[in-house]
Design goal:
By secondary structure, the protein is mainly α. The protein has a single domain, classed as Proton glutamate symport protein (Orthogonal Bundle). It has 19 helices and no strands. Helix 2 packs across helix 14, helix 10 packs parallel to helix 18 and helix 12 packs antiparallel against helix 18. It is a multi-pass membrane protein. It comes from Clostridium pasteurianum DSM 525 = ATCC 6013. One of its GO terms (biological process) is dicarboxylic acid transport.
Length: 425
């Protein structure tokens, strides 16, 4: 008798459904968090444990392969230009949608759950910084401190410089290069093992969320959820679809290739959870190793399309529920503030929520309004994480194409191999 075997994606979905069921049944019971939160935390810690070694070793190997600081500088410049363009489109789209559909109009403030935002305010005050601070903090004063805090930008900067140094010393650098390649290969093996625990992590994380806020918290804010999800689907299919077409591929191909990662990112609301796998898959899909190793981790701070979409829609939503009319100059100011504040966000759950809180005051919107969406922030976070993951994955393809380093034949062969594997399974 053939043993029934579920794919990772199906296992994660089962974990999601069971987590929702447990959270709904035991809504308001603090024991759910007591028992399940440690499981979710362990899973996220396992992911964080492998991200930095993979980013460091992959970047060193990739940059050493380029070996030319001028080429690397050109790559960095093109990457930042691409990120800024796509992020700006995302913010403008969010503002336009909020103006057209008015998700906050007609919402009764008294129906919304009152959630304390004191902890969010404190976090925002400690994390808010200027664009100048973001660039200053890219250069680490202590590399090991950056490793301990998990701050990706200074780690990327050091890895690039170290990779250039390894390339510059020629034969002497080969043992170091081989070591980094070995670390990279070993960590990708560890990643595959960690992913086997994903269904348990998803079950615990979603179970805790539903038990705390309940499914009823969705009802007064259903228009905001529908508007946000609809906009993000439009952004993926149209905006990213056009970019994919220009880059010589299809957004539907990428969705199929990244199916497991999309489901995992959605259910955990953490783009960091899938960083190692999307780096690996984009290289197999035809991207240059050096480009995918550089572009994708950098995008986790500079190219959060879903997060900026969410922030622009919810900022205007909060203004609308307070009856605040924002003029065109005020909305332009909001776009500029979001462009600046969104840089340097970490790829972890809730970071977008903190950035939103930090920018509302600058736009003249009451920050207390954030409390009204706290109950459904996790639901919105899940959607914006998927957009972030797809946006950064596509960025690797687009920049590889721009640099003339995208191997479309290799990409098509990888896509066909996935289809064959699906049919066999």
């Amino acid at each position: 008798m053939k043993k029934l075997k579920f794919s990772l994606a199906v296992q994660i979905l089962i974990g999601l459904v069971l987590g929702i069921a447990v959270g709904a049944i035991f809504y308001g019971n603090p024991r759910v968090e007591t028992y399940l939160q440690p499981i979710g935390t362990i899973f996220l810690n396992l992911i964080k444990m492998i991200v930095i070694p993979i980013v460091f070793s992959s970047l060193v190997v990739g940059v050493a392969g380029v070996g030319d600081i001028k080429k690397l500088g050109r790559l960095g410049g093109k990457t930042i230009i691409y990120f800024e363009l796509i992020t700006t489109i995302a913010i403008i789209l969010g503002v336009m949608v909020a103006n057209i559909f008015h998700p906050g109009s007609g919402v009764n403030i008294h129906e919304l759950s009152k959630v304390s935002i004191k902890s969010y305010v404190n976090t925002a005050q400690t994390t808010h910084h200027s664009i100048a601070d973001t660039f200053v903090n890219i250069v680490p004063s202590n590399f090991f401190e950056a490793l301990s805090t998990g701050n990706l930008l200074p780690i990327i900067f050091f890895s690039v410089m170290f990779g250039l140094g390894v390339a510059a010393i020629g034969e002497k650098g080969k043992p170091v290069l081989n070591l980094c390649q070995g670390i990279s290969d070993a960590m990708f093996w560890v990643t595959n093992q960690v992913m086997k625990t994903a269904p348990f992590g998803v079950f615990a994380l979603i179970g805790v969320t539903i038990s705390k806020f309940g499914l009823a918290s969705l009802i007064p804010l259903v228009k905001l959820v529908i508007t946000t999800y609809g906009t993000m689907i439009f952004f993926i299919l149209v905006v990213l679809g056009i970019v994919a077409k220009i880059a010589g591929t299809s957004i539907f191909k990428m969705i199929r290739i990244l199916k497991d990662e999309i489901i995992l990112a959605y259910t955990t609301a953490s783009s960091e959870a899938v960083l190692p796998k999307i780096m690996d898959k984009m290289e197999k899909f035809g991207c240059s190793k050096a480009i995918s190793a550089f572009v994708i981790p950098t995008g986790y701070s500079f190219n959060l399309d879903g997060s900026t979409l969410y922030q622009s829609i919810t900022a205007l939503f909060i203004a609308q529920i307070y009856g605040i009319h924002m003029s065109l100059p005020q909305q332009i100011n909001l776009i500029i503030v979001l462009l600046i504040a969104s840089k340097g966000m970490a790829g972890v759950p809730g970071a977008s929520f903190v950035v939103l809180l930090a920018t509302l005051g600058s736009a003249g919107i009451p920050i207390e309004g954030v409390a009204f969406i706290a109950g459904i922030d996790r639901i919105l976070d899940m959607a914006r994480t998927v957009v972030n993951v797809l946006g950064n994955s596509l960025a690797a393809v687009a920049i590889s194409k721009w640099e003339g380093k995208y191997n479309s034949i290799k990409g098509q062969e990888y896509f066909e191999s996935i289809n064959r594997a699906k049919k066999i399974a």
